[in-house]
């Protein structure tokens, strides 16, 4: 595990975000851009990735945000890796943990540590089309409207309480790449809006229902 590096400048009143990412970090980039507005209410204080080559690390470095790499190959087993993730994230003392293209399933012990404060995005309107290939499944089923979801993470796969959703039409002639790209655009906007509102107004969860503000 590489220890956190870099630094972050933040407002004392801003909610602290830690972003977990495995890839290029397009959602991270959107959050970093949004936080330039002082009124946004949240700041990314740490980035944790499972891949030392993840583009999200470059984004973090350029933004002066601390980062850590917790690679699976650095641990004897998955339990040790989950402990490493928990340690790396906890260093940053986050108010909220954002999974942004993070391609690993976290252990229940990690999920419980941040229960009610860990969010993920999904490129479909949950509970429809959960899992690893939602856009492919959407096209195969011939639906006319899909979209994206921001939801809380629980012990299941894409089963946590839904916080926010937005619709994206499926166009004639769409294939997986074209539909995926339009969903990603909507997903970035939804994530930025949702995280900002949660930071400013609070998130309240009662059973399956998650709501922003009172």
Automatic annotation (TrEMBL):
Q: Which first-to-last residue range defines the signal peptide?
A: none
- Recall the GO molecular function terms of this protein's record: phosphoribosylglycinamide formyltransferase activity
Under CDD domains, the record lists:
FMT_core_GART
Active site: residue positions:
122 (proton donor)
Which pathway does this polypeptide act in? Purine metabolism; IMP biosynthesis via de novo pathway; N(2)-formyl-N(1)-(5-phospho-D-ribosyl)glycinamide from N(1)-(5-phospho-D-ribosyl)glycinamide (10-formyl THF route): step 1/1
Which keywords does this Swiss-Prot/TrEMBL entry list? Purine biosynthesis, Transferase
Catalyzed reactions:
N(1)-(5-phospho-beta-D-ribosyl)glycinamide + (6R)-10-formyltetrahydrofolate = N(2)-formyl-N(1)-(5-phospho-beta-D-ribosyl)glycinamide + (6S)-5,6,7,8-tetrahydrofolate + H(+)
Location of the Formyl transferase N-terminal domain: 15-195
> Where (6R)-10-formyltetrahydrofolate is bound, by residue?
78, 103-106, 120
* Keyword Signal in annotation: no
Q: Which residues bind N(1)-(5-phospho-beta-D-ribosyl)glycinamide?
A: 25-27
Q: NCBIfam families per the record?
A: PurN
Role this protein plays:
Catalyzes the transfer of a formyl group from 10-formyltetrahydrofolate to 5-phospho-ribosyl-glycinamide (GAR), producing 5-phospho-ribosyl-N-formylglycinamide (FGAR) and tetrahydrofolate.
Recorded hits in HAMAP family, A to Z, give: PurN
Family in the record = Belongs to the GART family.
Q: What is this protein called?
A: Phosphoribosylglycinamide formyltransferase
Q: Which organism is it from?
A: Promicromonospora vindobonensis
Which gene is annotated as encoding this protein in its UniProt record? purN
